[in-house]
Write a structure and sequence with these properties.
By secondary structure, this protein is mostly helical. It has 29 helices and no strands. Helix 6 packs antiparallel against helix 7 and helix 13 packs parallel to helix 15.
Length: about 550
């Protein structure tokens, strides 16, 4: 029998220095060594928190709920209320607003009649965060004012921090991103000083990054993602927020055009976060759908968008653009129109540019002009470079469609500069393609050919096979996507599905789906015939994966 006292002391020390994996191991061993088979409330609470941080969320929630029951009976309503509020936060992070709201209500009931304290502030922040997800900005602003007042009276910088987060979010989402982000920057000072519990500090970090992404402020998103990664580095064994950062880093990688590296990482990270943070897992699957759509894997894109919807996340405008890519502009227009109905300016912004493109493809020029004007108004109101770039691209598309080629070119040049600043490779290629159309319309054959060649090369480097095929149909053998060519190259070298999956960091199921698509496109019925076709046309084989590349049974696959 191990010495429980020694195990507990070692585990508490590990927890204090942020080594949550070691703390979790020590607490579990101490629990097993306990005569009654259980830890005291404080140590059990540490175990629950360690389980949360190391990604064992189901166990964490079960243990934390047991801790809550103990606190309710033994410690009194205030301590129990704080635990209820923290449980509400954890359920909120998982994406279950109903259960999060239930825990918030329980905390509110327990605090009824209690002297005003810090616990009231954390609860107020939680309730405002939940209401923000229902677009209740007024409630968040009111909560921010109350938190500012409470933080001042209690001399509690952590409450002032949470107040600044709420007021910053409201300002950023109502057309003052500069003022909003200034408050969010200030809110991080108590976080950096370690004055917030890590669960709440992590939520603040993720909230800021999500807001950057929502406003298409990629430069700020890069900076905040890096800051969050550095914050995570102080903890050993941390899986929750480092996993979330990985998704945001991959989103940025996708914008920069490294789709081949991002696809496998996004698929794997989305699966890992599925039970930890439903919001970000949904974002991951949406990004996976976007990569697959742009690379020409339409079945895989549809599957990823469906997974996005399962997490309660919006799968538009990707789903509508997939309809367009499949040659169904009327269905695409119906899809994007339904998605736009009832949205406010901010939540509609991401759909308006694609809506313009779809409307033009469907022959609805008036609708395209209307949506373009809405996007320009939103871009002027919010002032972020991302929104401005989208608006410029949309206006140029409308001008080119109307035959106003000379008017379109300066707008396209401005859009190109904005997208280069954002490091948005695919959008930059699309601008070059549109420039080629404008130059051709003006009769400048040489300039049109140069822009067209630039667009084709950029699309090729990205792996945007449908766009390459559209501009240069003879470029891609057999109409295969870039990923299908990679799979075929490995199969041609003799790799099994399992080995191909390991080499490309995708699942065996995904390899199987790619092979089905390959067989159908090539008109063959076997791996041998597909391999022969590949050898005849010189499709490069990456070679069979070596031992280091072969699947690791201990490593999870999507």
């Amino acid at each position: 029998m191990e010495d429980q006292a020694g195990l507990l002391e070692s585990a508490r020390t590990a927890y204090a220095r942020g080594d949550w994996r070691a703390a979790c191991d020590g607490l579990e061993r101490a629990r097993a060594a306990a005569r009654a088979g259980e830890l005291d409330t404080a140590d059990l609470d540490l175990l629950g928190r360690c389980c949360w941080w190391t990604g064992r969320t189901r166990e964490a929630l079960e243990i934390s709920e047991h801790v809550f029951e103990r606190l309710q009976h033994d410690a009194g309503p205030v301590d129990a209320a704080m635990k209820a509020a923290t449980l509400g936060l954890l359920w909120f992070i998982r994406g279950d607003l109903v259960i999060a709201s239930g825990w918030a209500s329980r905390a509110r009931r327990l605090l009824r009649g209690a002297p005003e304290g810090i616990e009231h502030g954390y609860l107020r922040y939680l309730e405002a965060s939940i209401s923000l997800d229902f677009s209740s900005l007024g409630g968040a602003r009111e909560a921010s004012e109350a938190l500012h007042d409470l933080g001042r009276r209690l001399r509690a910088p952590q409450l002032t921090c949470l107040a600044l987060v709420l007021s910053g979010l409201v300002d950023a989402r109502t057309g003052d991103p500069a003022g909003g982000f200034a408050q969010l920057d200030e809110a991080m000072l108590p976080v950096l000083a370690g004055q917030l519990p890590p669960e709440w500090a992590g939520d603040v970090y993720c909230t800021v990054i999500h807001t950057c992404h929502e406003l298409a402020d990629l430069s700020r998103m890069r900076a905040w993602t890096l800051a969050t990664e550095r914050w995570c580095e102080q903890f050993r064994g941390e899986a929750v927020y480092s996993g979330i950062c990985r998704i945001h880093r991959l989103q940025l990688l996708c914008a920069e055009g490294d789709w081949a590296a991002a696809e496998a990482g996004v698929e794997r990270a989305g699966a890992e976060l599925a039970g930890v943070n439903g919001w970000v897992a949904g974002e991951a699957y949406y990004q996976l759908g976007e990569i697959r759509r742009l690379r020409g894997d339409f079945a895989g894109a549809s599957e990823a968008y469906a997974r996005t919807a399962q997490f309660g996340m919006d799968h538009q405008p990707g789903a509508a653009l997939l309809e367009l890519a499949r040659g169904r502009p009327a269905q695409a227009w119906a899809s994007v129109s339904a998605a736009l109905a009832g949205r406010d300016a901010l939540s509609a912004a991401r759909l308006l540019g694609p809506g313009v493109r779809i409307a033009l493809a469907a022959g609805r020029e008036d609708d395209a002009g209307r949506l373009c004007s809405e996007l320009e108004s939103t871009a002027a109101g919010f002032g972020t470079e991302g929104f401005r770039a989208w608006a410029l691209q949309a206006r140029a598309a409308v001008l080119v469609a109307a035959g106003r080629f000379g008017d379109a070119l300066p707008v396209l040049r401005a859009a190109g500069v904005a997208y280069r600043n954002l490091r948005a490779r695919y959008e930059s290629a699309a601008v070059h393609e549109m420039c080629a159309r404008a130059h051709a319309g003006l009769g400048d054959v040489a300039a049109a050919a140069a822009d067209r060649a630039t667009a084709v090369e950029m699309y090729r480097q990205l792996g945007a096979v449908p766009d390459v095929e559209r501009l240069d149909p003879g470029d891609v053998p057999g109409g295969l996507t870039a990923r299908e060519s990679e799979v075929l190259g490995l199969v041609a070298s003799g790799a099994s599905n399992r080995e191909a999956a390991a080499a490309l960091y995708i699942s065996e199921k995904t390899v199987g789906r790619h092979l089905s698509n390959i067989f159908a496109k090539l008109g063959v019925a076997s791996r041998t015939a597909a391999a022969a076709w590949a050898h005849e046309r010189g499709i490069a084989a990456r070679g069979r994966p070596g031992p280091a590349e072969r699947p690791d049974p201990a490593r999870g696959r999507a």
